[in-house]
Amino acid sequence: MSKVNKLLHNWLLKSVSEKGLAWLEQKQAQIASGAAERVFFTAFSAVPRYLGKQDLQLTFQDLEAAQDVIPGWHPGHWSVDQAGRTLLLLALPHDDAEGYVRSLDQVFSSADMGELVALYQSLPLLPHPDLHRHRTAEGIRSNMSNVFQAIALRNPYPADYLDNAAWNQMVLKAVFVGSPLHLIWGLDRRANPELAKMLADYAHERWAAKRSVTPELWRPVGRFADSAIITDLEKVLANGDVHEQEAAALACAESPLPEAQELLSRYPDLQSSIQQGNLAWSSFSRDACGELR
């Protein structure tokens, strides 16, 4: 049993009935031994009926164990049916990569929203991760917010496997739909000049329409700010609310450009807070944006 399988099984052991778990184990064994595909598809749909839909009861140690196995895997918001469905996906024979992806394509094509959420959440745990890029990019274009969030938030797959074009579109869409950027795994690591320009352009569109932008928009921008973006940050520092000013100051602090540092020096209280560690993106995100369950 793989480490991922063992963790999921142990978590379900604490959260579902003996009868439900016995049913799941039987289906896992049948699927792993090469049972007809209809066994997998029928079981995948039936998981909530046997296990329920309640949340997994995970401890801090459980979440740490998840991070140890797959960095960025954060199943704190997973339900028992999502864990059960992931175990069924992991039971599918996968020596034949094309056959495995073909089976996944079939289940994706007929899945309802709840099943799609489970499927996209499980992507970083599945075999042949390189082959799921197209599927992930397709999911990012979904109009279903739960599906988009299953990919974009608390999921390490996009940061680890998407190219810059798909990654940038995902982050921009997260801003557009109001998803909290601090829940995007790898946001700082995958920041890039093209994304910084896209986000700055988006801010200009919003400002032209007399609309505000989330302060988190400036988080992936600071390191790649050019003179035009520094001018934008100057405007935010002069006219923004408290959170917007803090975000602009943090962006300036991360910029290597002398003009960004000179701009930040005009706001000694913010500069001092950053230097003393009292203002950072980690604490800023919790205070300014709250947490999304």
TrEMBL record:
Which InterPro entries has this protein been placed in?
Answer: EboA (IPR047716), EboA_dom (IPR047715)
Which NCBIfam families does this chain map to?
A: EboA_domain, EboA_family
Tell me what this protein is called.
Answer: EboA family metabolite traffic protein
Q: Which organism is it from?
A: Nostoc edaphicum CCNP1411
